Amino acid sequence: MNLKRYLSSVLTLTEFELRKLRHDSSQIWLRSVQPALWLIVFGEVFSKIRAIPTGGVSYLQFMTPGVLAQSVMFVAIFYGITVVWERDLGLLNKLLSTPAPRSTIVLGKALSAGVRGIFQAIAVLILALIIRVNMSLTPLSVLGVFVIIILLGMSFSSLSMALAPVFRTRERMMGIGQAITMPLFFASNAIYPVSLMPDWLKTIAIMNPLSYAVDAMRGLLITGDLSALPIDILAITIATTVLVVLASLSFRKIIS
User: How would you class 156 by CB atoms within 10 Å of its CB: exposed for 0-12, middle for 13-18, buried for 19 or more?
Assistant: First the structure.
């Protein structure tokens, strides 16, 4: 398959996945409840007690990129449940019987998760503006944030799809998704600086793709410090590539 046909297959599958969102957009707003609680309750309280040093920005400003990344991760990490559901309905057999390589199926689904993450991010950014979080929303910063969100959504949706052949049922996938999201969230720089962590947790945070996504969005939206942006993007890109490859290699096992 040449590159043009390969990309066409990926985009066709992405568009097919996004149709589901067009028919039912309520899930975006329902999934905005948890970010709202983090910002309005947790953020407001810790801003007042000033228990966590955040440099020259308020705590609400500091945590907004972290909550934004967490909301995208939360949507993407449960993508494996959809894969299991499609297997139970027989849809995966039809997809795998087409001439398209398995990697196009994984990439199409992962890319749709990244695009869905953009809609989720817009809802969180609107909420942050309502509670008057001061952010730099220039065209370039917003575009940069959207790129990071797409990579982040692709990364964690691929992780979820890689785990689907192992856990195989929707109930188990729901459990593993919940077991992954909160530890990754707390073992990152989303709601407190890495410098406050014990050494063992710092090691985990350095290996956590979420840390690099949060750092990139914090620089783009809040601090304006873009010195680490190339490293952040490189780290997220490497994580996404590795997880897409793993998901592609294990994808056919979901129907065996």
Answer: buried
Q: What is the mean pLDDT of the chain?
A: 87
**Kind plus residue range of the DSSP H or E element containing 236:** helix 229-250
Our CA dihedral for 52, 55, 57, 60, rounded to 10 degrees, sits at: -20
pLDDT tens, position by position, 116-141: 899 888 988 998 999 999 999 999 99
Inter-CA distances, 97 with 100, 106, 112, 213, 255, Å: 8, 14, 21, 36, 12
User: Are the CB atoms for 77 and 160 separated by under 8 Å?
Assistant: yes
The token duo for 130 is: 């309502």
Q: Assess contact for 125 and 68: CB atoms under 8 A.
A: yes
Task: Round to whole Å and give the CA distance between 159 and 191.
Answer: 23
| Contact yes or no for 211/191 (Cβ under 8 A) | no
Q: How far apart are CA 253 and CA 162, in angstroms?
A: 10
**CA 228 to CA 235: how far, in whole Å?**
11
Separation CA 8–CA 151 (nearest Å): 19
Which residue in 24, 2, 13, 192 sits closest to 111, CA to CA?
Answer: 13
- Which residues neighbour 145 within 8 Å (Cβ) at sequence distance 6 or greater? 68, 121, 217, 220, 221
Burial of 63 (0-12, 13-18, 19+ CB in 10 A): buried
Q: Is the pLDDT of residue 28 over 70?
A: no
Contact (CB, 8 A) for 205 and 188: yes
Phi, psi of 21 (to 5 degrees): -70, -35
